[in-house]
Amino acid sequence: MADVEVHRFGLQDAVLALAEKHGIPICATILGKSVVSEIHPLYLGVYEGAMGRETVRQYVEESDCVILLGAFMTDINLGIFTANLDPAKCVYVTSETLRIRHHHFHDVLLEDFVRGLSKANLHPPKRDMPRDRERDNEPFVLKPDAKVTVRQLFRRINELLDDSMVVVADVGDSLFASADLTIHRRTDFLSPAYYTSMGFAIPAAVGVQVANRDRRPIVIVGDGAFQMTCLELSTAVKLGFNPIVLVLNNKGYTTERFLQEGPFNDIPNWNYHRLPELLGGGWGFEVRTEGELDQALKAALNNEDTFSQPRAVPFGEATLKTAVSCRRVAPATRIRCGRVPRISAPVLNPAPPELRSNGGCAPSISAASCRAAG
């Protein structure tokens, strides 16, 4: 079981060498997700105790030995303490401690342990991989008029992921539903799965492209978390970055509602899809059906120069709002979506007279089509 310290100490190659040499399956925690490529034949999936996939939970917990490498035994990693890992069958090693069964050893470096174990003459018993380890890999089948659901949304996201993309997930549904996405390259999934700090995703997406301009962030964030740090998208516009941001709008702190309901979980219901007007560029879409979702994501992918922002509201009556750059978008996309007028300072100036009559849309687009596109 590989966790976040394998990322931090750059031990991915050493861990893969250990697994491949001895044919040992690998799983990750939610904090360590994408520690190795998730299309590797030895990769099982994310272990989250009873909160995760049953096939992964059963395979891990029935093993005669579980080697936990760089793992943090937190409530989130342990599936809100639903994990059932017998210490008598575990080897637990981090940068600070080494425990083999009930015995503790001191002053052993994580890197030395991993490389030493890889050199050891081990003979682990061969064990078949679970047959259905593909984790809900049913393809996205478009039903244009169907309301967007969480399952279909994440199937569609999974379909668009490729080697150039980094998934950045905020907390709540964004994080836990993302656990089943298939990340193609290692260290291409970022999340605040340790402290579960809301508002992580938008600034983190900026960080992704500061580190590597060629990687494109796919950002999944709830409306509550988005409202905390969304104006970092202004930095993305300034620097010419191009994240695709999906805002899952549940009209409040939905995870908190399950803990304690009350009016303190309600937040203002912004017109998220109009944020590009404030920032001076972009496209906006309000998506409620799978057909609208598919069109919005295709338009976002065609945008190469600046940020794209999908927003999704209460699932069941789900709405997804997307903002896409006006630059370098295919002509057919422009005609279908309509142009969002750029805002010049001061941003509160009224729209020009020629735009006021149709709700601020470009003259070539009817007011009705503008409203339909968000």
Number of domains: 2
Looking at the overall shape, the CATH architecture of the largest domain is 3-Layer(aba) Sandwich
From the alpha-carbon coordinates, what is the Rg to the nearest angstrom?
23 Å
Structural category: alpha/beta
Assign the CATH topology of the largest domain: Rossmann fold
Number-wise, the strands total: 13
What is the CATH homologous superfamily assignment of the largest domain?
Thiamin diphosphate (ThDP)-binding fold, Pyr/PP domains
CATH class of the largest domain: Alpha Beta
Spans where pLDDT lies below 50 across 5 or more residues: 313-374
Oligomer: single chain
- State the end-to-end distance: 44 Å
* Helix content range: 25-40%
Q: Please, how many helices?
A: 15
Order of helices and strands: HHEEHEEEEHHEHEHEHHEHHEHEEHHH
Produce a short descriptive summary.
The chain is built from 15 helices and 13 strands. The C terminus is likely disordered.
